[in-house]
Amino acid sequence: MKFKPWSYQQYATNHIIDNNSSGLFLDMGMGKTVSTLTAVDNLIFLGEANKILVIAPLRVAEDTWSTEVDKWDHLKHLRISKVLGTQKQRVKAMATEADIYVTNRDNVVWLVKNYFSEWKFDMLVIDELSSFKSSKALRFRELKKVRPYFKRIVGLTGTPAPNSLIDLWPQLYLLDGGKRLGRTITGYRQQYFYPVQANGHIVYKYGLKDNAEKTIHERIGDICVSMKAEDYLDVPERIDNIININLSESTTKKYKQLEKDLVLELEGNDITAANAAVLTNKLLQMSNGAMYSENKNVVEIHEEKLKALLDIIEAANGKPILIFYSFKHDFDRITKFLKSKKLKAVGLGDSKDIKKWNEGEIPILLVHPASAGHGLNLQYGGNIIVWFGLTWSLELYQQANARLHRQGQKEKVIIHHLVSRNTVDEDVMRALNAKEINQNTLLEAVKARLKI
């Protein structure tokens, strides 16, 4: 297929070519892979790059980059080696002569430890840069070791600050080695933030100092560019619908007991929460209708969300439904419940399931957001999403919704959120909205304003 880039794609390609460090904060569905590959092809031709390492989520590493090379005529000559699978397969892939070596982020530590002394890559592309938002993560620390060997680095993401602007430092460090936001996370925090919640030397929450946000935006604006799909693409309308779930009085009583005492006994099974994080996770499970006991037994509590899900399916009148779930027992309960109603729901397996969904052969598809957050095109198979269980991660939330709400979708996308009243579900919805507001401020500040 002949590639005819949109103006924003040409802008993105030029930005990579013109900057040794380039952060592209592009919305999902804007063709960032083909734009990046086009830049890579030009840089190889110009002698500015030789061996390119691409780090991506597993599903994207397995399929997306090689598919894009095969798809476009001007890229077909590029040689790709997938550094994936068993150690034997990875070693063989590394020994293969290629232009681009694609691996997943879980292999970063292995790659650096085994090939540090003979590092051959002079250009790095991180697909979903925000997956390196933790400066404490081993994969960040290992990648930091080899960062000086890359002459060019590209970071791609649609969610650069999924939780707060503190998330930016590790990402920008990988791009520029600390030139814009400082060489240490401690220095970055001290310069731009102040403690809001702390216990001694341990700070749980930071606030932004006066004018810090504006200063951060200005410092990164020369190498980071933001583009939103709604500004350049014919993206369908999105309708967000919150379906409030009323829990019974007995269920609410159990919920409040666990919330207060951190301990609950259900049907002879003890449910305990060791700390606030565990408690939140338990309460999310309870809001969905079932929990894991201390013995890993699944204790069912209510079916209110299952009933609401059935109402949505029946109202859809045969139209395909994409369901995002949080826990394994959610998946099991949903499939069992729907089977009892003569409805078949299947989980997302491999690329064959993606094809079946897009061809209308799967009426109800169950997907965990962490397994479908990046690189999957599901917009041809349906336009209705149901969040059975919510996620705290803005990145997963946005990426998951973008599987249907993207270019190529022909209908309005309806996103149903099942929210149990007076539970942590409501806190999650508020947090997602607040994080999105903060992130949109960042994106707007580094937004590319093109004349198209």
Please tell me about this protein's structure.
This protein has 452 residues and is an alpha/beta fold. It folds into 2 domains: 225 residues, Tandem AAA-ATPase domain (Rossmann fold, 3-Layer(aba) Sandwich); 138 residues, P-loop containing nucleotide triphosphate hydrolases (Rossmann fold, 3-Layer(aba) Sandwich). The strands form 5 sheets. The chain has a 7-stranded parallel beta sheet, sandwiched between helices. The chain has a 6-stranded parallel beta sheet with strand order 10-19-18-15-17-16, with helices on both faces. Helix 1 packs across helix 2 and helix 5 runs parallel beside helix 6. The radius of gyration is 23 Å and the shape is globular.
In short:
By secondary structure, this protein is α/β, with parallel strands linked by helices. It is built from 17 helices and 19 strands.
Contiguous helical run count: 17
Biggest β-sheet description = 7 strands, parallel
CATH class of the largest domain: Alpha Beta
Strand order of the largest sheet: 3-4-2-5-6-1-9
- Ranges where pLDDT stays below 50 over 5 or more residues in a row are none
Give the CATH architecture of the largest domain.
3-Layer(aba) Sandwich
Strand content: 15-25%
The number of domains: 2
Q: Say what oligomer this is.
A: single chain
Shape: globular
SS content category: alpha/beta
Span between termini: 24 Å
Rounded mean pLDDT is 90
Spatial extent as radius of gyration:
23 Å
CATH superfamily of the largest domain: Tandem AAA-ATPase domain
At CATH level 3, the topology of the largest domain is Rossmann fold
Fraction of residues in H or I helices: 40-55%
Number of strands: 19
